[in-house]
Design a protein that fits this description.
Four copies of one chain form a homotetramer. The first copy, chain A, has 452 residues and is of the alpha+beta class. Chain A has 20 helices and seven strands. In chain A, strands 1-2-3-4-5-7-6 form a seven-stranded mixed β-sheet, sandwiched between helices. Chains in contact: A-B, A-D, B-C, C-D. At the A-B interface, helix 1, helix 3, helix 5, helix 6 and helix 7 of A face helix 1, helix 3, helix 5, helix 6 and helix 7 of B.
Chain lengths: 452, 452, 452, 452
């Protein structure tokens, strides 16, 4: 259907013939040259030369090493911001006479030149893909170079507009999907690694398993985010049960529960352009339409930083003195050892998930933050639910069920957003109270407990 | 593939249940109510309630009469611009210390609230479609109410980002296309009306005819713009020859010319988000790839306002005294009469197309402006090329061939953009000189001749 | 996806170069030449030459007039039957020693050479399509030339194998279907003519209307048979109510009835390869899966030859003396006139449909034969249900509802097949008894009444 | 698109409810029961019950062990052949009066009942697939039970009609193909095993590699046969060069040769319904259309039974005394050893391929038989072209290039079919003469050399 990519290429090719690169002094450094090309792109008038210039910039950037990337972003920061001189009289006029008309003049004059530059680059193929990669590089560099933040702001502004959720497409991915897509699913799965194609097949081919992903029309085979689901007859308490290659199939006709057991972002360059909350809700509606008998929607989620959080407090918790060995010696395999730890660890986990806060006052656990903020309820804490090395290391093998109840999602979400208590089941509430006692905290000060 | 529309609907439906409309006072006017809903949308936190509020706004707007629309746009103008109070300190800070950092703060604070509003509305289905219709209404109202221009600026800003040419899809439309698309082609054809489905079939089904359109992924069956093409063995001089139902088919294997005989914008709400120039160039590349033997790309184009331009000058052109009767009595059918008029009229048309300017100094004829600005060359003026009532009325039956030569498009475009002379063939140049003489103009002052 | 057609063409093209047509004497008649080509095809060894020979035969046949077609079929009859000489020893052997082994030898040796010929022709593109057209010609000629029947038997044998219902594809046709398909729907509708594209759209675009068709994978855009359906809230009694352009839409969510109001065979060349019964049953299952609330499946069907049947009996039915004028003067528009005729005509129609038999002892009415044989029940006779000229002419404006009850289809079908009474409602049974009285028939001899 | 499968299932499901299995005596053996069901299917009248009976038969057969299958096929042989009693009078009539009319009666009456049975089974889903599997079972059993041949004849007759090449679809398979198809490609590759998904990707994803397959519309994801191709700049002499994971990509724009390096039949149940010759020719046309610069079409083919053929003659060939060690000790890695064997072995291979015959007088080598019979020319014999264990074992590592020259395919094919000499290059002819001398054969008697 789409001939776009090829044709853009052909037009750019034609433009390249007329693209006089001799003017881009060979003496200058690669970064100086790409900056000169960016200036030319911003001032170009013809379609063909603009496409060719854009392609040239994208191709040169792709060959950059980390140092050149940094230099390039620094140039974008310094030389492609708003045009200050042109803005000054408008700002004076607004200060003299504040009002919407003058404000809008300000808005237009203050747009960083980077935004126009990125819009133009997006027209050359494969512009969107390259810009996402470019921002992924930038985000990596930002950690050491926070001053580049304004450049990222322009990326984020445009990406939020282009990846407006109204433009996304939900697709079910099964064994008839193109290998080019499936290969990326294997690569991008971030929660429970997919070992190989057989493992992948076990997750998408059986009738009681589902995988849904968001796509953007411009990025045909590139999932943006995906979620994996098991259809079951009860709320599952361990990931081993879900991933067991020898498990028994569930009868889809009678399954009443959808377990969301993995959700993976695929594009680091789209961080902060959030799709996850929306994906879960759309998939819930999709499943309800197809399988009316499925009435319970729950997750099986990790507690990625519980061990870290608990680590600093272990000195004050003598009853957990043997905990460090739990993983090392695979002691959790010993049922009596495991049983001894269960009550205290689940109590502390309940406390951690429902009451511990980070410096901004949000739940300390990032996964809890996501699901609770999204309107889910913290339903159950599962002991020895992920006994793989990672699971043991991150949370002593515990996992959590969050439940999405259609009639309370919106209310929970509003309560969360307004800073009120998070939604938890009665059992978890009891466990959290026990956890507070272990930590010797009164209800009054427990919110002060810093997070990760 | 895409389950999006349905699912958005279902989520919105769920939200509606919780959408407490009682707070939107029933006493208030419909416009006051929709304004209250817009405020609520801007402050909403949950997905479902935002989608439901957005749907409610779109649905209510769809029921508005012209007066309510005007009142709504006026409210958008007055109440949803930039937040002036918040902006003032930032403007003062920038004036005190001008620099990119302060400028960017200005940029963010000065964004009209309308932009966020439109982005949120776009998430409800069918948001994009409704927003385009909304802007079409606005453009109509703008003629009488130019003060609404700032509202339009926000639409245009977002549409240019969303309809970035990198996101468009080129499709060939033939007799196997969905009826839902074809029906719109019939409706949108603006140059040479398509009488009925048989007429349409004659334009897309024969192997020597083509129709290409741009689509946006979100608007599945809605063409944005399309172009109709005849493959021929020479540069065709009359539209009758192209549209004749009894014409002989061309042998595509030997055809060397692609005649672009009609190009139609489909979405009034996307005016100013130009695709036309890009469409022609992409189609040229597409045809070159499929049919290497086609080497000439020419248009058969109207002169939509030549009669109007000439009308005011007729008093000074006694040799054209019989011109008024040409159409009335179908005198053009008389070969000797027709022959008598030809030299003078083509000379004047050549002058009009290549030298007449509007108040902004651009070519007076809008079609000439488009093609010449796009890099084409004005090749030939054809007498009695469109003898339908409209053709006679608009330009005494004349039409023009513009030619796209791949090796000069970019150069012509740059010359045009820098205000230099337009590209014309030697023959047209001679005719234009003759036209100048008829008008008794020296080469020096001919540019002063005002356009329509 | 399918490159087949093109490639077959290219291979055939190559073969044509080597196809020495000079050997096909130019002196011979066109029919003698095509017969020579058929012989060559049957003895050809190479792929390319076989494809080229097949294409040549198909192309030549396409240019034949009716006389040449007849001569060609006569040649097929005379010269391409079983090879009698080779068969004779085998037949003798079987008579001498009857048994399955010898019987199978007989079977192989007795295959008419036509079958191999048709199989080979099917390999050239567009073989299947051309063979169907060829048989349509043959069926037309058969009326005057019944001796050609053996040729038809070979077509039918192969078509029944190729169009095995396991190979057919059911598709819903709506307004997003390709125009190439829709155009054929307009052309093939045989019961209630589709006036134009607007009329078509009214039948497929509204949510309460459906059209389903069977397709064969080799004939992409060619429907084989299709059925039109209205979703309603009651069993509809008149076609005017269904086709009224100004009718109100039904709410699909609450509709409980599917009215099958038109079923059209598309391919005269596939007569006797029946799909109709299967189509109805598949569509019933399809609707049940999509719309569980739809529980009644009924037709609104014509009585195509009731007037003809009744005509010969009018002399004995003085109470119907004014009937002839009913149509002529549109007297049926007069309510009191119409009311006067209703009881007798419906009684006679009930008798005609449920008891009149043709010479083979089957129901005299072909539509009744189809639906009753298919397991439906004759539910209701509707007076003034089709007041168009055709409806009045065929059946004085009456139409019938047959009902498909899932729990009795199979039983009705078996009863019908074994020659027992047809399934009728109590009301129709009473009306049929009244009709018998009017005709002065005892229950004993009513089956003797000949059909059309 | 196709709702067929589901709907067939639903109709069958409904039929099952009414399928009175109690009549199928529980006392009888499973095979007696399935035979009773077959009789019922042949006499069934209703659609639903026929579909249900067919599904029941297919499901029961699927559960059979090898002994039950044999018993079932024996029952098909004994009880479902032609109806001998009904046939006898017709045979007598034909013997008395031989002619086409009586012959056709014979043909109809002598059709084995199995054919009708298989046609009916094909209507239940997934009938086609199950029948192919059934025949695969039968072919396996035939080796030990040649008397079942008549049953196979009926399968073959129907499959040749259903898989008429006019119904097949050619598809290019690349990395965007569904995993469900790709998985089968991995499984079915029979010549050069595909190790895993990475290996597969190397064969279909790079621009200089192609894979084409035939599909039948009823078997969506099931390839029937496929061919793998490398685009190169010369006729490649070793399979290692083609499959090397570290090879350099060829530039497709300048590649002039298409190497067909593997062709695999996928469906054992379709043996004898040949597609291979047709596939190669269609792919040649496809490549010519897409890549006009590719003008050489050659294979790199194995000699699967050369070692076996030569083995029996080694005693008479003292110069090859060391041959047995060649493989065992990987002595071929020693260049001087390898060089010593080359002239004699290639001479003998040339002789074997071009002159050795099997008992039916056809070329002894099955691959040579296929390509030479298909119109190719035996171009070159390549020493150490496949040094994998299988290659060494089968042919001392030799492989062959056959070349398809468009202008001689048909002529070669006809010559081959008429029993004349096969097409070989001058070099191979010389080598074959040398081989004949080694074998001490005069040109006169070399055809007598028996094959494998």
């Amino acid at each position: 259907m789409s001939l776009l990519g090829d044709m853009l290429g052909a037009i750019a090719e034609r433009g390249r013939a007329i693209l006089d690169l001799s003017a881009i002094s060979q003496a200058a450094s690669p970064v100086e040259q790409i900056v000169a090309l960016c200036e030319r792109l911003l001032s170009s008038r013809g379609e063909a030369s603009a496409l060719a210039t854009g392609s040239e910039i994208l191709a040169r950037y792709a060959g950059f090493d980390e140092g050149e990337r940094l230099a390039f972003f620094s140039a974008l920061l310094g030389g492609f911001g708003p045009e200050v001189d042109a803005l000054l009289p408008a700002a004076r006029a607004f200060v003299a006479e504040p009002g919407p008309v003058n404000a809008e003049v300000l808005h237009q004059l203050s747009e960083p030149r980077r935004q126009k530059l990125f819009r133009l680059l997006n027209q050359s193929a494969p512009g969107t893909r390259r810009l996402i990669e470019m921002r992924a590089d930038l985000l990596r560099l930002l950690r050491e170079h926070p001053g580049l933040e304004p450049v990222d702001r322009d990326f984020r502004h445009l990406f939020r507009s282009w990846f407006n959720r109204g433009f996304l497409e939900l697709r079910r991915i099964d064994w008839s999907a193109p290998a080019a897509v499936l290969e990326r699913i294997i690569r991008y799965e971030a929660v429970h690694e997919i070992a190989d194609w057989d493992d992948l097949r076990r997750r998408i081919d059986p009738p009681d398993r589902r995988l849904y992903a968001f796509f953007h029309p411009r990025l045909r085979d590139e999932p943006l985010i995906f979620v994996e689901i098991a259809l079951t007859h009860s709320m599952v308490a361990s990931i081993q049960a879900i991933l067991d290659p020898n498990r028994k199939l569930s009868d889809v006709a009678t399954a009443n529960t959808a377990m969301f057991y993995s959700i993976s972002d695929c594009q680091p360059g789209l961080r902060g352009v959030s799709f996850g909350n929306f994906l879960i809700k759309q998939v819930v509606e999709e499943l309800r339409a197809e399988l009316p008998q499925v009435t319970r929607f729950a997750t099986l989620s990790p507690l990625p930083s519980f061990s870290r959080w608990l680590g600093g407090r272990l000195a004050d918790l003598p009853m957990l003195s043997g905990l460090a060995d739990l993983s090392a010696g695979e002691k959790w395999r010993d049922r009596s050892v495991a049983a001894a730890f269960e009550p205290d660890l689940t109590a502390l986990a309940a406390f951690y998930l429902s009451r511990a806060r980070d410096r901004s006052g949000r739940p300390a656990d990032p996964v809890a933050r996501f699901h609770l903020g999204n309107g889910a309820r913290l339903e159950r804490i599962n002991w020895l639910a992920n006994t793989g090395p990672q699971g043991i290391a991150a949370s002593y093998g515990m996992m959590v069920n969050y439940v999405y109840r259609l009639d309370e999602i919106e209310r929970n979400h509003e309560r969360f957003a307004s800073g009120q208590d998070v939604a938890v089941s009665a059992a978890v509430r009891r466990q959290a109270n026990a956890g507070a006692k272990l930590l010797d905290l009164s209800a009054g000060n427990d919110r002060l407990v810093g997070g990760s």
